[in-house]
Amino acid sequence: MIIVFLEHELTTSITLCGFAVSNYYNKVKLSLLEKNVPFTEAVVYPSQKEEILAESPMGKVPFLRTHKGVLSESQVLTEFIEDSWPEPPLYPRDTFDRARCRELIEHIELHLELPARRLYLEAFFGGTVSDEAKKEVAPLLEKGLRSLVRLARFSPFIAGDAFTHADCAAWVHLPLVSQTTRKIYERDFVDEFLPRAKAYLKLISERPHAQKVNADRKAAMEAYMSRPKK
Ligand SMILES: N[C@@H](CCC(=O)N[C@@H](CS)C(=O)NCC(=O)O)C(=O)O
């Protein structure tokens, strides 16, 4: 009995590492909360220090400490969580529909979040980005949003009638695209290209776990901005 108990404890003991301002961290955190997976959190900031690289080879967050070792890349974390704790499922059962869900996540991250990220320094952190970067990013975001119109269902969730990991991703990334384009171009690209996103994001924000992630994010912002810079 004791061995069974210990094994159970070990396999369920995971720590999400990163900080609650990070959209990728919050994507995984929302998935964990929605699946009722027990986890702890450790505050870790991105860094190129050896001790961080030893756990996250690119020095990025989030990463996940598990009883078998450490995993990095948020989508890998999402897949590991879904495979390890299948219930309640946050992907559809049907393999094609599952792929559709992953397609949405890939699309939002590759074609919206990553281009928008090139502008975050100026949009959120008091720095400046070049006019050249601003010129390059605008058409990329427009193209990414035009194609998201074709992929997103909003019925009422982004992949259909059930809440999925794609909602965890959309809910953390799309508001950043909105805020970035408002700040840099004085236009809200998400609102312009995807007007249905506003009501959809509000629907997700009303979920108790999303409210917890959001409250933690607001509290963490202050700590992040006043952290010692090395
Ligand atoms: N593809 C990565 C992206 C993670 C990422 O960019 N995290 C940011 C924080 S939101 C980070 O660690 N940035 C520091 C860096 O790029 O060095 C993932 O999905 O986990």
Quantity of strands, as a count: 4
What is bound: which ligands?
glutathione
Known CATH architecture of the largest domain: Up-down Bundle
What is the molecular shape? Answer: globular
Number of helical stretches of at least 4 residues: 11
Within the CATH hierarchy, at the fold level, what is the topology of the largest domain? Glutathione S-transferase Yfyf (Class Pi), Chain A, domain 2
Which band does the percent of strand residues land in? Answer: 5-15%
- The radius of gyration computed from the alpha-carbon positions, rounded to a whole number of angstroms, is 18 Å
Helix content estimate: 55-70%
**Which whole number gives the mean pLDDT?**
94
Uncertain regions spanning at least 5 consecutive residues:
1-10
Largest sheet: 4 strands, mixed
Structural class: alpha+beta
Number of domains: 2
Structure description:
Strands 2-1-3-4 form a four-stranded mixed sheet. α5 (95-117) runs antiparallel to α7 and α8 crosses α10. The protein is 61% helix and 7% strand. By secondary structure, it is of the alpha+beta class. The protein has two domains: 2-84, Glutaredoxin (3-Layer(aba) Sandwich); 95-225, Glutathione S-transferase Yfyf (Class Pi), Chain A, domain 2 (Up-down Bundle).
